[in-house]
Design a protein that fits this description.
By secondary structure, the protein is mainly beta. The chain has one domain: Jelly Rolls (Sandwich), CATH 2.60.120.10. It has no helices and 9 strands. It has a 5-stranded antiparallel β-sheet with strand order 5-4-7-2-9, with no helix packed on it. The chain is globular.
């Protein structure tokens, strides 16, 4: 997935574990049911993150375009908590 600079993904969950590899840039992630930029933590290229199923989280690309590889088992589904 390619995320342009300034983009954000509001709070959501997945029914299965989400495995994320940061390929390019710095990907910002935080846990919570509502987007809060102050909580975001940066993960640079080469990072590998496991987000357990059902964990509310949100993401952003603050400093430049970010490329991440999303992996998991079965059909990928996103359930948004925010509109």
């Amino acid at each position: 997935m390619k995320i342009p600079v300034g983009a954000r993904v509001l709070a959501h969950t997945h029914p299965r574990d989400e495995l994320v590899t940061v390929i390019e840039g710095t990907w910002y992630l935080a846990e919570g049911a509502k987007f809060d930029a102050a909580k975001l933590k940066g993960y640079p290229a080469g990072s590998f993150i496991i987000i357990p199923a059902g964990t509310p989280h949100f993401v952003a690309a603050k400093e430049g375009t970010v490329v991440v590889q999303l992996s998991g088992i079965g059909k990928f589904q996103t359930d948004y908590l925010e509109k």
